[in-house]
Amino acid sequence: MPYRNLRRSCAGCFVLFLFALIVIVILSCLLGITFGRWFTPAAGAAQMGERQVVLLAPEISAAPERATPFGEFFSNQVTVEIAPGIVLLSSTADGAGALMTDDQATIQVTRADGSRREWAHDFRANNRSGIAPLPAQNITALFQPGSNLVHIVLRDVMPNTYSSLPYYLIFTAPVPPTRTTLPTSSPTVLILPPPLTPTRVSMPSVERGVSATSTATASPSITVPTPGLAMAKPNTASAPDIFPSVALGGGILLAGIIPLVLVIRQRVHTAPANQPPASFGWLNLYDAQTRESYPAIDLAQYPHGLVIHLDPLRVDAPGNPAQCLVAIRPSEAGMILLANNVPVINALGWNSDLETEMFSATPGQVLRDGMQLVIAARLELEYRNPRATDRVDSTGLGGSGV
Fold it and tell me: Is the pTM here over 0.85, yes or no?
């Protein structure tokens, strides 16, 4: 049930906690960025490597038709130094070109530890009536950091011709420790050998035909020179000036702590001397004779206590005690129940019935959390207060009053 005062206190504490947490997170991020950059070695950027492109196989134009497949029509071996990063296989140097070979391509990699990995693809369509292109491939899993020997083989397995688009290997190469870096406006400079022929073969779909009189004239092996290394970006890393970051972090911390202290001091205050004791908990009321029930009563709405009437069942602010059945008032010990000289049957909590004289002549009885009473054999009252330090147990004996 609602506790207005308790709810306000919880909401205020949550807001203060959230505000302090935000300030701490912001300050931690600023200090982490500042000192993380401060202690980063200046040579760290040079160890990240540079992007490099190597031509594994040039573009090969369609060969003269022949009745039988040619078999292996191109092979090449290249040794590359690989740094951690993504390795792509593409028909263009930008890493986005689709691959296409009539008919098959195989790439075997001997890695730095001596193990071997292989990538192979058959470009023939499912119905074997044409060649289907393949998007650029991520073949990072074939390589290990260090020296890798790459062997590419292109094969023709069906007549009547063969051809291929270029094969580029795009990867991250380590930068030699003694290498001189030069500034460049472009991210990568490529030094590639010219293609074997100026004519490019366009093969979205190559229809096959068998000719018994055609002959093959292509060489089975083509030697390709190894391309040069790409130029590295200049190393511009330097020790940052940490004073602005530290000053900003200190300002945010100060701006967060001052309002927090002011809010706490405003909320923590001493109650005035004439302020009545705080009322906590709530009541559930039920008239067993008329079967009336009263909505749960938040005692915080009655700082000076309340009185309960019957016929009809109702609750009012304190008035003439002689005209009501029961009164409940706050005290330093807790909520006090005063019965107007009527029997109080113990449902849970008291060991004997409570009978009082006029309200002014009796100290009453302290209510405890979970207490259930029947007053005048008619009014059923239940008291709930989770903040109480004493609670009625299930045996009905309970502990001492608050």
Answer: no
Pairwise CA distance, residues 82 & 76, whole Å: 18
Domain extent, residue 374, equals 282-384
- Has residue 375 been placed in a domain? yes
* Residue 384, pLDDT above cutoff 70: yes
**Please, are residues 80 and 171 in contact by the beta-carbon 8 Å criterion?**
yes
Residue 140 near residue 159 (C-beta atoms within 8 A):
no
- CATH number for the domain that contains residue 347: 2.60.200
User: Which residue reads 């009539």 in tokens?
Assistant: 102
* Residue 391 in domain: no
- Write out pLDDT tens, residues 160-212: 899 999 999 999 988 777 655 555 544 444 555 555 444 444 444 444 443 33
Total structural domains in the chain?
A: 3
Does residue 207 lie in a domain region?
A: yes
Classify 173 as helix, strand or coil.
strand
Contacts of residue 353, defined as CB under 8 A and 6 or more positions apart, other chains included, come to 343, 344, 345, 346
Q: Using alpha carbons, list the distances in angstroms from residue 392 to 99, 276, 327, 382, 386.
A: 81, 26, 21, 12, 11
Q: Are the CB atoms for 218 and 70 separated by under 8 Å?
A: yes
State whether the Cα torsion 237-243-249-252 is positive or negative.
Answer: negative
